[in-house]
Amino acid sequence: MKCEEIRSKLNAYLDGELKDMDTVRRHLDQCEQCRHELAELSSVNDFLSQYEEEPVPQVAIARILAIPQGKIARSLGWFARLSIALTAAAAFFLGVVMSGDMASRSATQYTDITLGTETLYSFDMGGGK
Q: pTM score, two decimals?
């Protein structure tokens, strides 16, 4: 099995829900990257297991299931839908323009400052003057 297939099965492997546990175990014996991924998932599961899972109230489930398909989208007025679409388009355009602008500048204009475990990056928009 390839790493991609194994990684997609690691959660089920941790939960003991796989039929082919031996296949995954053999791959993990040979693949350090997948073992590392398994260790990370295991630590996340250990962290999350300290919290109690609260059941969703049946009243909430019934209300959600009672909402007809598309009612939420129809409840927004045309102006709200247009505003959302224009905002998304503007954000995409701004991202494209800014990424191209930053990529065209030289790397010497970037400054990184380390504060404890955080690294802050500064960009000189004035062209280094």
A: 0.42
